[in-house]
Amino acid sequence: MLRKNETPRRALFIVAMGFLSSMQSPLHAEDAPALSTASAVAASSMVPAAVAVSTPVPIVAHTPVAKAAETAEFIGAQACLSCHDKRADFKDSIHGHAFQQLKGISFEQSCETCHGPGSLHAAAGGDKSNPGYAMIKSFKTMTAVELNKTCLECHEDEGRMHWMGSVHEKRNVSCLACHSIHEPKDQKSLLIQPRVELVCAQCHKDIVAKTRRDAHMPVEEGKMDCTSCHNPHGSSTPKMLKLASVNDTCYSCHADKRGPFVWEHPPVREDCLNCHDPHGSHNENMLNARLPFLCQRCHISSRHPAIPYDFNVEKAGNNRIMAEGCTNCHSNIHGSNHPSGKYFFR
Questions:
Q1: Is the peptide bond before 260 cis (omega within 30 degrees of 0)?
Q2: Phi, psi (rounded to 5 degrees) for 216
């Protein structure tokens, strides 16, 4: 004698077995075994919604765009020049000669050495909607990190070892911020401006402007430029100086101020910037302030004068306020080797 709930359980068992059979050997709709009306009703009332079988969605395989780059092939510079004919002069540029003479890279390989294989880009025929069009390295769309990495593949061993971690690198400056590979305005260093100081002035306008003051570095006269003191690619010293310190940099030209002296002036030995502005000033000798005010930043309460030179001294008619300075008497202010030069008179 059957129990009360045996028939519904049997119906559920039949549905489950049919589902498993369909997963193992799918049949066409007309070949599927039909269930009785009673079984169908029982199945609809007993099978949870979670196990309802839906029609499988066909999976369409899409090839990722990035994978297309793996199939790109080298086509040679002549193929590139069929569209980029303005780049033909690259062969006679500094880079073109360096590729062949220093790296052993022929002109045919030169374009794709930096930009990558160009077959997919060329096949796109200028159609920017074609995924293959972007399958080259475009310096206009690359990030500064990616672009610099490309350049460092060749320039890493040519004095550029300080670039990583330098001030310029930390501020995300790219090589193309200063240099142009195909349209340089300075052929020697492939700069984007005719002169170094104009390149630096893109960011350092306040500093470069000082070179046009009354007393200035001979930058305007073309006797030196920013790279005479600084290494724009980085250095191990502050301010990207080429030498170990500010004083060593200044002494490379002003060797007579180096010493050692019998009588040394402490602020001179410490740092030339204590008294001078290295880029330019409206005071003589590029001083930070006009004499005698500069000296009185330290010598304010000893010997003469007893008070600083200010408007009160001028009102009193003091004869030291005009056309005179400490160096009129203390002529060897940087240091003295004379036995009686304690006060830098001689």
A1: yes
A2: -150, 165
* 114: nearest Cα among 250, 84, 295, 130: 84
Phi, psi of 191 (to 5 degrees): -85, 155
The mean pLDDT value for 194-213 works out to 95
DSSP annotation of 188: T
**Can you give the C-alpha Rg of the chain in angstroms?**
40
CA-closest candidate to residue 15, choices 42, 37, 55: 42
H/E element, 146: helix 144-155
Domain ranges of the chain: 6-51, 75-134, 159-242, 256-336
Q: Which residue has the tokens 């672009």?
A: 147
Do 257 and 334 form a contact (C-beta atoms < 8 A)? yes
- pLDDT tens-digit map of 176-187: 999 999 999 998
* pLDDT tens-digit series, residues 299-313: 876 666 656 555 555
Write down the pTM of the prediction: 0.72
| Euclidean distance between CA atoms 99 and 104, whole angstroms | 6
